[in-house]
Design a protein that fits this description.
The chain has about 375 residues and is an alpha/beta fold. It contains 14 helices and ten strands. The strands form two sheets. It has a six-stranded mixed sheet, with helices on both faces. α2 runs parallel beside α3, α3 packs parallel to α4 and α11 crosses α12. The structure holds ligand AN7.
């Protein structure tokens, strides 16, 4: 009998992209098999647009904790454990806390998470609580939490795992690698939501490294590259398009914002930590920023769910809202290949989804006739 060939088991982004990451050979990797998320080509929404384009969504909601944060967290926690940390800490609008809690649990260390009271989606809070993080609700917003975390990390033995930790962006840049590996090229445009602005900076680093270049966003390449010479995988990098909620849009205002409000609580951030890096990504790539109101964000979240069967959280939908608007306004030309990052899963925030859903939930008698009538009355 022929022996079965041993399959190689996928074990996360560090193993996959090790040559591109600051990880030593003997380092214990803390992973939950994050990454390898699907790049889904939209089929129905593009047909409604004035110009023929290809739109792909990178569904990062399918990471182990339901958001893109896992890519950065595997790196940050792996490094923290290597340095002997016994506790990690972050401020969070929700997803970072869920991810930090998961990777800390995996590593067997403590996680402390500071969240804005009443402004975090239920699914995210449930994750942090279940995974044993110490949840500290503050009577303030994310920006207050971030300030406190920086202060407390100077006074207590905790490692910050927010994206000011340079290992975070290193992990997150692997999403750009995956897109190129799959498409065989870089997209012409890359659309994504911007909160703390770490992710847009990370993608730009990833695309730049695959183009054989280096950016300011790579804290590990100062004068010379720590990884040595690279042959370019791609000849062109995408224009980076960043979208914000109007109630939390410092990149549109041109300065930090103090009073933030938006239904997209994930990106309710007025003092982005990667301000300079994100501006660099935007300028170097020839991209731009734009903003959307809460009703527009929710409309596109619903559109993706209804027309494509893809359920992302409100903050994520803003990437597709941006792509649609820029195609309609001609800023993205016909024939373009567009990638949109759907940063988090819709199940993170069931309250917002149910509140805005117009889908009828019918109540009928438990009888064949009643169920049959409900079906015939509601055929598309
Ligand atoms: C779904 O969890 O900042 O611009 O504390 O959860 O890299 O900050 C979340 C951010 C987009 C913005 N989409 O990314 C946190 C946090 C979702 C997010 C962003 C976040 P960045």
């Amino acid at each position: 009998m022929a022996t079965k060939k041993k399959q190689s088991v996928y074990s996360g982004i560090i193993s996959k992209y090790r040559d591109w990451l600051p990880v030593k050979a003997d380092t214990r990797i803390i992973s939950l098999c994050e990454g390898r998320t699907p790049l889904i080509k939209l089929e129905n929404i593009p047909k409604t647009l004035p110009a023929p384009v290809e739109i792909y969504v990178k569904f990062e909601g399918l990471n182990p904790t339901g958001s893109f944060k896992d890519r950065g967290m595997t790196m940050a926690v792996t490094q923290a454990v290597r340095e002997g940390a016994r506790a990690i800490i972050c401020a969070s609008t929700g997803n970072t806390s869920a991810s930090a809690a998961a990777y800390a649990a995996r590593a067997g260390i403590a996680a402390f998470v500071l969240i804005p009271e009443g402004k975090i989606a239920l699914g995210k809070l449930a994750q942090a609580m279940m995974k044993g993080a110490v949840v500290i609700q503050i009577q303030g917003n994310f920006d207050d939490g971030m300030r406190l975390v920086k202060e407390v990390a100077k006074a207590a033995p905790v490692t910050i795992v927010n994206s000011i930790n340079p290992y975070r962006l290193q992990g997150q840049k692997t999403a750009a690698f995956e897109i190129v590996d799959e498409l065989g090229r870089a997209p012409d445009f890359h659309c994504l939501p911007v909160g703390n602005a770490g992710n847009i900076s990370a993608y730009w680093t990833g695309y730049s490294e695959y183009a054989g270049m280096h950016t300011k966003a790579c804290a590990f390449c100062t004068d010379s590259c720590v990884y040595g010479d690279r042959t370019a995988h791609i000849s062109q990098r995408p224009k980076m398009l960043g979208y914000q909620a109007s109630g939390a849009a410092p990149f549109l205002r041109g300065h930090m914002v103090d009073n933030t409000e938006t239904v997209a609580t994930a990106i309710r951030i007025g003092h982005p930590q990667s301000w300079d890096l994100a501006w660099a990504a935007s300028r170097e790539s020839g991209g731009w920023f734009a903003e959307f109101s809460d009703p527009e964000i929710l409309r596109v979240q619903k559109l993706l769910a209804e027309r494509e069967g893809i359920f992302c959280e409100p903050a994520s939908a803003i990437a597709v809202a941006g792509a649609i608007q820029d195609i309609e306004q001609g800023r993205i030309p016909a024939g373009s290949v567009i990638a949109c990052t759907l940063t988090g899963h819709g199940l993170k925030d069931p309250d917002t989804a149910i509140k805005q859903s117009s889908a009828p939930v019918l109540k009928v008698d438990a009888k064949l006739e009643s169920v049959k009538k409900a079906i015939l009355d509601n055929m598309k």
